[in-house]
Design brief:
The chain has 12 helices and 9 strands. The longest helix has 16 residues.
Length: 282
């Protein structure tokens, strides 16, 4: 409510409202938008949204409004859920198309985000908004500066190569592992998980030739790393345990060189702990 009031007081032309959880029952769903966007579907918050992608898609479909355009960022076998809901509500449905832009946020997975953003702007322009190509280029090239958004394939050191990414569900980790496997460097993964995440599914896809550093956090939502050790043993993953991510980071960096790649991931809190630590010592 405070955010909506702030936007009203500042007379914004467009407000981008991110759903907090799912869609159908989310508190942000009180608005009547000019455009709804569903970026993708992945397993997350199964305890609240359902234990299948079809059920999760139905929850996300809750933001589709009568006669209001809906944009789908990425097609999947479950897209039919959105199509059926859109048809019932006479909502024009669109799918993101390839766009010739780049962003200052790195990682190949940003391509999907860029395509979705550019397609959304095209839809808005057809609704009499006036967002130019230069606006798009300028915005995409200054996301970090304009938003303060960090931890999206953020390179914080080049030798050794250190990357932060807030991936925290199976879909995001599939992207992470795919990109890391391209590199010939020795991989060291500093990670921790929030209690509400399906970390077991993530552990199943983690490569066995990486080295893992399981960490806790000052945030109580992060699982105590000692509780995770047996799961890492079950999947034959090599690991060390640290109380905090920045303890793992300082220990690892002191022993690393140009042949190593350090990835910090698993939770927004784990990445945040590292970034705050680095900001304080600079």
């Amino acid at each position: 409510v405070m955010a909506f009031k702030y936007f009203e007081c500042n007379n914004v032309d467009l407000a981008i409202i991110e759903v907090g959880l799912g869609g159908r029952l989310d508190s942000t769903n009180v608005i009547t938008p000019v455009l709804s966007i569903i970026t993708n579907i992945s397993f997350d918050h199964q305890d609240l949204l359902g234990d299948s992608l079809t059920l999760i898609a139905k929850e996300k479909a809750g933001i589709i409004k009568k006669e209001t355009p809906i944009l789908i960022g990425k097609k999947s076998p479950h897209t039919h859920v959105f199509e059926e809901k859109a048809q019932n509500l006479q909502a024009p449905i669109f799918y993101s198309k390839q766009a010739p832009y780049k962003s200052d946020l790195k990682g190949d997975y940003q391509v999907n985000n860029i395509n979705t953003s550019a397609t959304a702007i095209k839809i808005l322009n057809n609704l009499d908004y006036k967002i130019s190509k230069n606006h798009i280029i300028n915005g995409l090239n200054h996301i970090i500066k304009n938003t303060g958004l960090r931890g999206r394939w953020e390179v914080i050191s080049k030798e050794p190569l250190v990357i932060c990414d807030v991936a925290h569900n199976i879909g995001a980790f599939n992207y992470i592992v795919s990109e890391l496997n391209i590199s010939k460097l020795n991989k060291h993964i500093i990670l921790g998980f929030s209690r509400d995440k399906d970390f077991k599914s993530i552990l199943k896809i983690l490569p066995k030739d990486y080295q893992y550093y399981i960490c806790g956090s000052l945030n109580e939502r992060i699982i105590n790393p000692n509780e995770l050790s047996s799961y890492f043993d079950n999947y034959n993953l090599s690991y060390k345990i640290f109380d905090l991510s920045y303890n793992a980071y300082t220990d690892l960096v002191s022993k690393s060189n140009k042949n190593d790649l350090i990835m910090i991931t698993g939770s927004t809190f784990i990445v945040s702990d590292i970034l705050k630590y680095l900001d304080n010592i600079e």
